[in-house]
Amino acid sequence: MFEKRKPGRPRLCPVIVKMLIQMRREGYTYRAIARRLRISQMTVWRYLKSAGLVKSRKNKGA
Question: 0.85 cut: is pTM over it?
Fold first, then answer.
């Protein structure tokens, strides 16, 4: 299923990705999602960014 997996970056199955996106739309934070699904916060952020659910922080505070 995950033939092109790179070392150190395990991929999530599509079911978990759907749960991750659904939880974010329900208002869960990255930390809450990561704790419930037992994955890192950075992994949560990467998948949400690829789904278009992360706002850009460009020029924030400048």
Answer: no
